[in-house]
Amino acid sequence: MHGPASPGWLLVALCAATGGYCLLRMRSKVEEQRKAAGGEALMGFGMAAMAVPPAVFTPPAWAWPAYTAVFGAAALRALWALWAARATSAHHLHHLVGTGAMVYMAAAMAASPSFSSAHAHGHDPAHDGSGVPLLTGALLLYFAGYVLLCGVRLLPVAGVGGAALAWGDRPEVARACRLAMGIGMLAMLLTM
């Protein structure tokens, strides 16, 4: 979340643009698009806010617990949606993992107030010779697999046609946004 400034700004732009598109999807006439878009917009804007380089803006001490609370509430909502689906819903399960990862990262930042200053001096307190924490490694594996799966789903299928759709209803753009957020999550987890 707090690496070099240039990649940090690219991550901010990517996540903010994705969140903006998800807001457009909330106006869709397709109910499935509207339901998914709100949570994805929250994730996009939340990731953008967490990725702002610390040289530009160092969040106040209350920001990390606030992020933890917001994404904890989003995780509970995703858990409720998963339970209400009465079956394994890959979409709700992914949102649960994503919001859980955001809670994990925000809680790690809240627990380590010197994290950003230690990063600026080339020292990472989370890696004092012990390697990658188990949960971080598991999340990295999950999101790497998710990114690969999203990339495969973007490949064009021969013979698929249909009527022109509004921008908020285009499934390939929604998939591209999910791919972008998956890549963003990988980038954020790599800095943990």
Q: Which percent range fits the helix content?
A: 55-70%
User: Mean of residue pLDDT?
Assistant: 80
Instruction: Enumerate the spans where pLDDT stays under 50 for 5 or more consecutive residues.
Output: 116-130
Largest sheet: none
Topology as H/E string? Answer: HHHHHHH
What would you call the shape?
Answer: globular
Portion of residues in beta strands equals under 5%
Terminal residue distance = 7 Å
Q: What integer value in Å does the Rg equal?
A: 17 Å
DSSP summary: helix tally: 7
**Count of individual domains:** 1
Helix-and-strand structural type: mainly alpha
Strand element count: 0
Please provide a written account of the structure:
By secondary structure, this protein is mainly α. It has one domain (5-122, 129-190). The chain contains seven helices and no strands. The chain has helices at 5-25, 31-50, 63-84, 90-111, 115-120, 134-153, 171-190. It is globular. The model is unreliable at 116-130 (pLDDT under 50).
Furnish the topology, listing elements before pairings.
Blueprint lengths: L4 H21 L5 H20 L12 H22 L5 H22 L3 H6 L13 H20 L17 H20 L2
Helix pairs in contact: 1-2, 1-7, 2-4, 2-7, 3-4, 6-7
